[in-house]
Each structure stands twice: as C-alpha cells, then as structure tokens.
Amino acid sequence: MKSAARDGERDGPRGASVLSASAAGGASVWSTSAPYGKPPTFGGGAGQAGAPAVRAPLARTRPKARSIGYVTDQPDLPEEREARRPRPGRPEPGLVLARPFGIPVIISPYWFVIAGVFIFIYAHDLASTLHGSARYFVAAAFVLLLYASVLLHELGHSLTARGYKLPVRRIVLYPLAGISEIGERQSPGKEFVVSAAGPLTSLALAAAGYCLSHFVAHGTVAGTVILELWWANLIVGLFNLLPGLPLDGGVMLRAVVWKITGKASQSTITAAWIGRGLAVALVVVPIAVGIANKTGGDMMSELWLVLIAAFMWSGATQSIKAAKFRDRVPSVQARRLARKAISVTAATPLAEAIRRAEESQARAVVVVDHEDKPIAILNESAVMATPPQRRPWIEAGTLARTLEPNLVLPADLSGMALLNAVARAPASEYLLVEPSGQVYGVLAARDIDLAFAGV
Length: 455
Known about the structure:
With 455 residues, the chain is α/β, with parallel strands linked by helices. It has two domains: 177 residues, Roll (CBS-domain); 250 residues, no CATH class. It is 45% helix and 12% strand. The strands form four sheets. It has a four-stranded mixed sheet with strand order 3-4-5-6. A hairpin with a 6-residue loop joins strand 3 and strand 4. Helix 2 packs across helix 3, helix 4 packs antiparallel against helix 5 and helix 7 runs antiparallel to helix 8. The protein is elongated, with a radius of gyration of 27 Å. The two termini are 26 Å apart.
C-alpha cells in the first residue's frame, strides 16, 4: 500500500480555503466578484498610498505549519516540521488501534463496514470447500490477518524512515489501503529505500507463508487461511511495485527521476501520469482480453479493479495538484497581494466609507480609534451582503472584525511562511504592517486563493 503524508491544516469556516489544498490536492477559489459589488471603481492596486500612517502591534509568529508529505508531494520546508508533532485537540480520522514502536495506528471508521463486506464475499466464495460457520470463521480470520499484513507493510515504511531519523506521525488503515504519514524527504536515495521497504515486507510475509503452508495440511481451516494469506501478500507486494503514483513503485520511480533530473516537482508529475495510465489499464485490459477471448468476465473481480483504479487515479491526481501547488507557493507574496486601504472611524456610515474607498481607489477599509490606531477591518462579505439602500444607516464598525494580534501580519511575509501565518488564524482579511509598524495594506484570504487558481 502507499506510504504518504497528508497533514494539511484545516481552516475554519472563515479561513483561507487554499490551505486545505495540501490535503485535497487542489485550491478552492472564493467568489470572484469585485469588493463591495463595485467592480468599475474599486479595482485599485495594493500599496501604502492612502493607508493610515499608524503603528500596529506586529503579529507573533511561531513555527506551526501544514505538511505536504512524503509520498505524493515535494520536500518539506523548515516551517513545516512542527506540523508533524502531535497537537492536543486535533481529531484523528478514526480509532486508535495500537501504538507499535510509539507510532499511532488509526483505523478508519469505514474499515469496519468494508471489512464486513469482505468477510461476507469471501465466505460466499468458500461455500464450495467449507460448510457451516467454518467458512465465516476462515473469512474473518483471513480479513483480519490481511489487514495485519498491511499494518506490517506500513511498519516497514515507518521503521525504515525512523532509521533515517525521519519523523513518523502515524499509520492510518483505510478500507483499500494503508498510509504511513512520514516527514520530510531529504534525498532521492532515502525516498527510494523507505518506499521499497513496504513491498519488500509484503514479499517477505508471502515467502514465510509459502514455507509455512508446507507444514499445514491443505483443506483444513489453518491451511486455507495460510494459503490465501501468502497469495494475498504476494499480490500486494508485487502490485505495489508497479511504477506509478500513488503506489510505492511510483514513489521509487519518482526518486529515480528526481535523482536523474534534479527536479522533484517534475518527477512527481511524471510518476503520477504513469500512475494514471496504470489505473486506466487496470480497467481496460481485462475488458479487452474478455472481448478478444469472447468470454464474459467476473463481475465482482471487475468491480474491485474499478475501485482500485479509481483509488489510483485519485491519488495520482492529488499528487499532480500537490506538486503544482508547491511550485506556486514561493511566488505568493503578501506585498504583491495586498489591497490598498483607507481608514475610517467606527461611527462612519458604511455608504460614506465605501465612497471614500472608491474615491481613493482602495479595496479595503480599516477602522481606527480616536488615536488613529487600527482596531478592526471591514468585512468584505458582510458589506457585499448589505443592500445599498441600508448602507447609509449602518455604521462601518458594525461590519468590521476586531483586529486580534494574529490578524496583524508583517508585509514581508511570502511563500510557506505566509500560508503558515494565515493557517494559524483563519480569517477573511488581515492587516499588513511594515517592520516599523506602519500599515501597508490589507491582505484578503480570497486573493490568496486566487493566486492558486487552476492548481
């Protein structure tokens, strides 16, 4: 099964949705309508002109980041390492089964449903050789031992990674796969070895099962379980060596291409496209063979192949998106995305605040106190939701979000440091300040999303 890390920070309902792309592999884009519903006159660029020359406390930043991880994405940046440390209150994607070698093993809630389906189907297949409750016992034992084998496969990845002193966050067992969430990739060589450890573990289990099968009578419950289990491990080991993402063989291929070209991102895209091709072949080849031989295929087998192909296609697609995402990260700069801002008092009528912004060709409004210090930012979504006829009677302060310290960001932030800062405090707008404390402008989370449009 594949070993990967997808440890994306999840934004709150008002957060910058582009950050959730680290997990989903793509960037969502907010509404592209112009601020305050005035596209002709509200399109000024970012900058200091028109911004209140006041001081604001600089936001405190600490290293806490999302991590696009080991299998499908690019090497981690230093700012991402903190993300791999366990954080209190962060929900796990399932039940904690055990902690072998201190590594949490999580079972997806869907696992129980699919495992039950597997047991029922396998028991039905055993009806010709076993009778009564014995076939259900054998089916249950086989499914449980198969997932134990998957766990050992993932431990092969994880323990090898630990041998290289790479952080291992957890192992997650899904219905059709296991995932080892492993930290930064330091070199193609280490990635290749860590990725190969999983399939080699499965093949070792297959060899052990094959040897053991010679000492157990065939046709018995134990003999049937061992026979099926070593075949299953052989298939899992060989299948995962196929050279396409998200399979382990795809990660190994990527490591080779990375070593040859020196381009980590391009190696990901190459291996992912091959993975897409393998996914298509899994569906097309059996159908083509059946047509050529004029024989009907096994419907159940074809269904499983379709499910596996869908899993592979989805994983490969996420790998491509994640690679493109990381390529674009360094070009995201707060200064380039900043909106020019004007300042008004909280008691200023909303209509008047909008008029002043249009007059100054500004795209944001900062609310200041009687000492001209910024205390809030006018919420663009709230303004757009307010009917024009009501705007003269509503004070700007009632539609502004209070400026908390973590909503004030240095204007020099860029790349992952900028995304980390936004992820720590999900909001729709942020105040950007110079090192001197002077206001530079306003950063809208929507503009960060637009910077990743098309990824």
